[in-house]
Design a protein that fits this description.
flat, Rossmann fold, alpha+beta
Amino acid sequence: MVQEARGFAGVGAEIAARVQERAFRWLQAPVLRVAGLDIPYPPPPKLEHLHLPGVERVLDAIAQLQWDDGAA
């Protein structure tokens, strides 16, 4: 789940929780959230790029889901 809003108590958190609750047995990995930082918004304009989820943070989350399942 990727969203610009902060991760705590937001719409993305609710969607992630519902997916986890209702589809847990079919998931092959946990639901991860990449969201804006849990800080007061808006941050100073020069720091906004640090607050918003960027490509690097999304790729880091995807890398957390990569594992070797023995299939070759």
